[in-house]
Amino acid sequence: MSDLISSLYPPPPPYVRFFTAENVQRAAELRRQHGPDADKVLSETKDLRFLVPPLPPNKPQYRSFGDIWNFEDKFITLEESGIQQLYEEADNVEEETFTVERIEELKKMTKSLLLNFLEFTGLLAKNPAQAHVKIEQIRVILINLHHLLNSYRLHQSREGLILKMEEKIRNDTETIQKIEDTCLQVEERIRSLVWREKDVEVEHVDNSQNTEPSREQIVESVRKSVLEGA
Amino acid sequence: MTDRLTQLQICLDQLSDMFFASLSYVDQNHAAVRLTEGDEMLPDPDHNPPPETEFKANLTELTSDIILKTRQILTIIDTLPGVGVSKDEQLKRIESLSQELAEIEKQKAQTLQRKEKLGSMVDDLIVQVSEGIAQTRD
Description:
The complex is a heterodimer of chains A (230) and B (138). Chain A is mainly alpha-helical and 230 residues long. Chain A has 5 helices and 2 strands, in the order ααββααα. Chain B is mainly alpha-helical. Helices cover 75% and strands 0% of the residues of chain B. At the A-B interface, helix 3, helix 4 and helix 5 of A face helix 1, helix 2 and helix 3 of B.
């Protein structure tokens, strides 16, 4: 056993010694010569067998770190993982949605968890031999709880997205409002400078009252009022 | 801050940790009991249980911690967002929100444009007015 864990990393697989520069070159040459059949030829040639890339796996699962994993991400129901489902549910409920009933179940199970722990401590005091039954029950409850919470995950992501969007809309509306307010203030200021001057001019020029002042007029009147103020 | 769901999952893990911790505490710190009345109590140098009052107080603290954690979990469960909303409803809402958002973006661009225009107009005004002042002072 001790020589198995003598180095930090496991040694490279034995077939690495076939990946020499020479072999790689030979393989490339054979590939050029044989075209589409190259893989077959290569796998029949000595030393070059391992230079053929393996086929993609055709099974739905793979093993890694002693566990079995699915290639496809999918929601595994409690039944599939061999755990008793403690909560009842209508048949047509999607796994991804979250109903009021599930909230109730979550609460019920949390309370039940507490009660089970109490019973567990009692059992440990009175009859430790039976404790493993309780441990198993607590385990099932915890797994059920986590399962329900995990099934809520996607739902929450969508809900989070909605909240973020609402926030962005609110912020943008606020920004727009602020910019518009400032613009209005500036326009108001310019106008007031212009009209102050106009009041003086009204005595002299009557017809300018109803027409919008031209750019030059605005400039002229602003200049005057600034000068007066100075 | 993490989202409510992660919070809830962490709380559950903490709760199970607390279960274990309190059991360990009781296991390691409880006082020895006589099996038959009148037996002599032999001192054990490796076992020094705390005085009875302290042990009881710690037990009370551990239990109230567990109760509090459970309450916290129940509260978080109550505040989970979007309960009772179906997936379709959510997707529809996201759809309408994204339209609204696009609309707002457009409006924002327009407002910014208007601001730019006004800004350059004010710039012009300032330049022209100051030129005018400079000329009249000559």
